[in-house]
Every structure is written in structure tokens, then in C-alpha cells.
Design brief:
It contains 16 helices and 13 strands. The chain is an alpha/beta fold. The protein folds into two domains: 154 residues, no CATH class; 187 residues, Dna Topoisomerase Vi A Subunit, Chain: A, domain 2. The strands form four sheets. A six-stranded mixed beta sheet has the order 6-3-9-8-10-11. A three-stranded antiparallel beta sheet has the order 5-4-7. The chain has a two-stranded parallel sheet with strand order 1-2.
């Protein structure tokens, strides 16, 4: 009797989830795919069928507990994805993509403003469909999720992603934004959110040059010392978050050169190389030459781990600098060349 009870218990545990997955697969194949056969989402439904046991296992197991809610969730996601099929998520050099507030979009399709959030009731399922639709990987972080939403024309947590800048020229159709014009007239830096930037149909730079600094203190100092100059400055302290990506994508599409300056250590050069890969035609290493390094070389030791040694840089200029730094064994700080950076902004912005 004891053995009978033991085997009965473990057989149920072993076969239960399989039964759930099988029932869900039958539901997708026999009911959902025929229902959406003539829509673009039929391809996503076949994706579900092919990866039920891996990417969609939690939904398969939920199906046996509450098939109506799972069916309703998939219906909502299919309808939402079909609505997005005509939206462009990329800048095209002429105008920035139109956006819809994610909460409004979710409310319209599900009755719950937060259903499509990353942690919402439909969020993981919606993001799976969105990643499939845009041929992108499933987001590994909230920042990746925000970027994926934005590529689809959906604005998520737009006020939380921000970038500090001065001297950008922002337009709605052919009219310069009033707030942007006011800041430019006063030569003041301002903080732009993803939501603010999404309203603009065109963004340009003064004299087609953008001066990007990774260090907030350096950005602030250069900003203060170039008040008489209309140059375009951008602070990249938080890395390529969605707001900064949108701003630089738009400036790059307008043909602006992106002058990038950073600390001369491995982290700085590795990040600079990412900008080079994203904007190969526009990226300009700014004061990142061998001569600049020698002029401001510090006493701080430069060290590369074995893993870092294996990761080569794609930019020839950055790779050359990295090679020299390995030989010298010292780093160099962006702040040590402040006066030079200020002089560059003034001379190149004329």
C-alpha cells in the first residue's frame, strides 16, 4: 500500500504538466490558429506551438486551471499585435515614430491599464509576441523592455528615462518647440525625458556637431564654460538608455557628427566602442588619441582581466589607444583635459 501510494503520487506529478501542455497545444492548433489564419499573428501562434514546452510553458500550465482567462489573454495580445503591424519603430531620417502611451493602449485592449506592463497580467505574453513581431530577443531587463516597447511605437515609463542636453534643435513639424527654444535662447542645459522627446518630429544639432560626455561633472563644467557658444552638448552618464538612444538616433539620422569623450580606462573605451558600432558613420572619437592619452596620463594603474583581454574593440582608433594603455599600464581621466574640451566646443561650434 505504501508503494502504491508512492507511485501514484509521483506518476501524477510527472504526467500532470505534460497533460496541461498537450491540452494547451491542441487548443492553439485547433482553435486559435484557424481563428487568426488570415492575420499576421498566425505566425506568432505557430511560434507558440513550436516552443510550448519552453517559452510558453507557464501559459500552458495556467490553461488547465483557467482556460477562459488564458484564451482571453491570447485574444487580447493578438488584437494588440495586429493593430501595431503598420507602426514603424525606427527613425527614418525624416521624422521620429509616432507613439502611443502603453497604459492607454493596454486599457483599450484589455480593460486594464497595466496589463501590458512587464510585470502586468499579460505583460510577459505581450512581450513575447512583440519580440517575435520585431525579430528581437525577449527583453532581459526593464531597460530592454522599454526599448522594445518603443520600437513598436509604445511609450512605457516615458518620464523615467531621461537625458541631459543643451543646444538641441527640436521641432514639431516645421515649428521649433517653444520650451526648447527658450532653453536655447538662455544657453541652458535641460533634462529631456523619453516622453518629451517622443513629441518631436525632428531633432537636429547646431552646426551638425554633437559633443557627448560620459561624465556628468565634466558635462556640467563644459556647459558652464561655453555659455557664449551655441554648441550642442549631451551627457551620456546613464549609458544608452531609451531616451539617450532616441536623441542620438535622431541626431545621427539628421547627419550630425557625434563627438564622444570619456575616461581612458577599459570601461570607458568599451562603452565608446558600443557607440561606434551603433553610429559607425557619425561617431568621432573626441580627445581619445594616443597623444591625448600621453598628455593626461594618470598614476592610476590600468588592468585588464583575462576575459577583457579577449574582447577586442571594433574601432581602429580605440583599439590602438587600448594597446598603448596596456603597454603604459596607466589610465587617464576625462576631467584632466577639461580646458581642451572647452576649447574644442568653442572652436568647432563657430
Amino acid at each position: 500500500m505504501l508503494l502504491d501510494a508512492y507511485y501514484e503520487k509521483h506518476v501524477i506529478r510527472r504526467t500532470g504538466p505534460r497533460a496541461n501542455i498537450s491540452a494547451f497545444a491542441v487548443f492553439v492548433e485547433n482553435e486559435l490558429i484557424p481563428r487568426y489564419e488570415r492575420t499576421e499573428t498566425a505566425g506568432w501562434l505557430r511560434e507558440i506551438l513550436a516552443h510550448t514546452r519552453r517559452n510558453y510553458r507557464q501559459w500552458a500550465e495556467k490553461y488547465m486551471e483557467d482556460p477562459q482567462s488564458v484564451a482571453a489573454a491570447i485574444d487580447s495580445v493578438c488584437a494588440a499585435i495586429d493593430e501595431l503591424k503598420t507602426r514603424g519603430g525606427e527613425t527614418n531620417g525624416e521624422a521620429l515614430p509616432a507613439v502611443t502611451i502603453l497604459s492607454e493602449f493596454a486599457l483599450r485592449h484589455t480593460g486594464d491599464a497595466h496589463a501590458f506592463d512587464m510585470s502586468g497580467t499579460h505583460g510577459p505574453l505581450f512581450l513575447r509576441a512583440l519580440a517575435w513581431r520585431l525579430e528581437m530577443p525577449y527583453p532581459a531587463s526593464p531597460e530592454d523592455g522599454s526599448a522594445l516597447y518603443y520600437r513598436a511605437g509604445l511609450l512605457s515609463e516615458g518620464v523615467l528615462s531621461r537625458v541631459a542636453a543643451r543646444g538641441i534643435l527640436a521641432y514639431v513639424n516645421d515649428t521649433q518647440d517653444e520650451i526648447n527654444a527658450l532653453y536655447n535662447a538662455r544657453r541652458e542645459a535641460s533634462v529631456w525625458t523619453l516622453e518629451n522627446l517622443s513629441r518631436f518630429t525632428r531633432i537636429a544639432a547646431h552646426n551638425q556637431k554633437v559633443f557627448i560626455m560620459e561624465n556628468l561633472a565634466v558635462f556640467s563644467a563644459v556647459n558652464e564654460r561655453t555659455k557664449n557658444c551655441p554648441g550642442t552638448l549631451v551627457c551620456a552618464e546613464n549609458g544608452l538608455n531609451p531616451a539617450l538612444s532616441l536623441l542620438l538616433d535622431a541626431l545621427s539620422a539628421s547627419g550630425a557628427e557625434l563627438y564622444y569623450s570619456c575616461d581612458m580606462d577599459y570601461a570607458g573605451l568599451y562603452l565608446a566602442d558600443k557607440y561606434y558600432l551603433r553610429y559607425p558613420k557619425n561617431f568621432v572619437p573626441w580627445r581619445l588619441s594616443r597623444a591625448d592619452y600621453e598628455n593626461v596620463m594618470s598614476e592610476h594603474d590600468f588592468f585588464l582581466s583575462d576575459k577583457q583581454k579577449e574582447l577586442g574593440l571594433h574601432s581602429e582608433e580605440l583599439a590602438s589607444l587600448l594597446s598603448m594603455m596596456r603597454k603604459k599600464g596607466k589610465t587617464a581621466a576625462q576631467s584632466s583635459m577639461l580646458e581642451t574640451l572647452v576649447a574644442d566646443v568653442i572652436s568647432l561650434s563657430q
